[in-house]
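Customer escalation, tier 2.

The customer says the design service returned an amino acid string that "doesn't look like it belongs to this structure." They asked us to rerun it and document both sides in this ticket. The original structure tokens are below, unchanged.
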């Protein structure tokens, strides 16, 4: 048992490091930062959304029952708290994205504009708030890695799906903030999965409360993938998105 625990500790730490590296080096993958949207980004979005619906939401159903038993209550507020947290997360990150766009902080340039994007967004307060809120999301992901109720198989599928998701998010940040994100933002976000993992090593949650963390991650992931794939101006690749979703769903079902 101790040997298994040590193996999971090392694997989860490696997962946190890997997710941090994704943030640090995604901007170097020039084939992703193109217009129309790279097929690989649509594929990555499909992988992320498949993980949420095929694996994470069913797991939330189990933790929903654990939460009700933990609270010893069956009133309307505590019957569906995890799904309410997912909805809250989705609405919150939608609000953050909308606020950033309406604040005029974008450093993105049109695809047919050869002018260099500005070095810094107009409102750095909005930029750092945006980074801070996604840092919370990333830290919760890192925290989740440290929970040993998962096996190595569950850990691997989670890290792979979230790694694709982080890559999609990074390209979105680069399109929106570009230079300031590459210079500062990626380092801040790259640190947060490790911070969350370290916190998870020190503070352990009951299964019911861990469900709240997973619910928050699920809602945020759904919103972040959809906001990148749905806008018409991004020219997303539907076939690639479906291929990612179908392929990863099949993998998850074969491993279950």
């Amino acid at each position: 048992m101790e040997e298994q625990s040590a193996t999971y500790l090392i694997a989860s730490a490696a997962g946190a490091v890997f997710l941090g590296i994704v943030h640090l080096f995604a901007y170097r993958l020039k084939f992703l930062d193109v217009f129309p949207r790279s097929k690989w980004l649509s594929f990555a979005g499909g992988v992320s959304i498949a993980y949420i619906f095929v694996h994470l939401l069913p797991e939330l159903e189990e933790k929903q029952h654990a939460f009700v038993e933990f609270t010893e209550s069956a009133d309307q507020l505590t019957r569906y708290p995890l799904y309410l947290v997912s909805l809250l997360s989705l609405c919150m990150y939608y609000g953050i994205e909308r606020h950033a766009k309406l604040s005029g902080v974008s450093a993105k340039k049109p695809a047919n504009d050869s002018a260099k994007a500005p070095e810094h967004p107009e409102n750095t307060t909005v930029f750092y708030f945006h980074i801070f809120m996604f840092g919370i999301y990333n830290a919760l992901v890192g925290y989740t890695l440290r929970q040993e109720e998962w096996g190595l198989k569950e850990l691997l599928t989670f890290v792979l799906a979230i790694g694709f998701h982080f890559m999609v998010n990074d390209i979105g940040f680069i399109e929106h903030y570009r230079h300031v994100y590459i210079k500062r933002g990626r380092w801040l976000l790259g640190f947060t999965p490790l911070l969350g993992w370290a916190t998870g090593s020190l503070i352990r949650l009951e299964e019911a409360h861990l469900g709240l963390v997973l619910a928050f991650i699920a809602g945020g992931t759904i919103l972040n993938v959809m906001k990148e794939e749905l806008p018409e101006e991004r020219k997303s690749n539907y076939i690639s998105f479906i291929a990612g979703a179908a392929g990863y769903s099949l993998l998850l079902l074969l491993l279950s």
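Tier 2 assessment: The sequence is consistent with the input. DSSP finds nine helices and no strands in the chain. The first helix runs from residue 2 to 25. Sent an explanation to the customer and offered a walkthrough call.
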